[in-house]
Amino acid sequence: MGNERLTAATGGVLIVLLAVIGVTIIRLRPLLSVHLFVGMMLIGPVALKLASTGYRFVRYYTANPRYRSKGPPPLPLRLLAPMVVISTVVVFASGVELLFVGPSSRDTLLPIHKVSFIVWVAFTALH
Question: Can you count the helices (H) and strands (E) in the chain?
């Protein structure tokens, strides 16, 4: 199925970009501009991954025969998925807002960005 290939290809791109983000987190101060640039580059692939997996979800639960024949994802993945999606959206929304609002919002948004990232890492690792 085309959706399956799209989801897999997008996942491959995400792994590379997320690895770069991981490196920038280790040395954030000198690599902040790289962190911001790659973070913005991630928005497209993350949106595409959410859309392609959401499409599969909708097609499965609307009883499309092609998607039904593949069966549902394992139960643990289905249970973890909402937290992965929510934390992903919060990490990116807070990051973009930090970028555009600037240092004046640091006291409020930076803790949200950091905590949502920790939640995202935990749930994504389990997922």
Answer: 5, 0
Residue 105's pLDDT band, with cuts at 50, 70 and 90, is confident
Q: Which long-range contacts (CB under 8 A, 24 or more apart) does 87-95 make?
A: 87/116, 87/119, 87/120, 87/123, 87/124, 88/46, 88/50, 88/120, 88/124, 90/116, 90/119, 90/120, 91/116, 91/117, 91/120, 92/39, 92/42, 92/43, 92/46, 95/39
Q: State the pTM of this model.
A: 0.88
The reported pLDDT for the residue numbered 118 is: 96
Q: Which two tokens stand for residue 33?
A: 């501009």
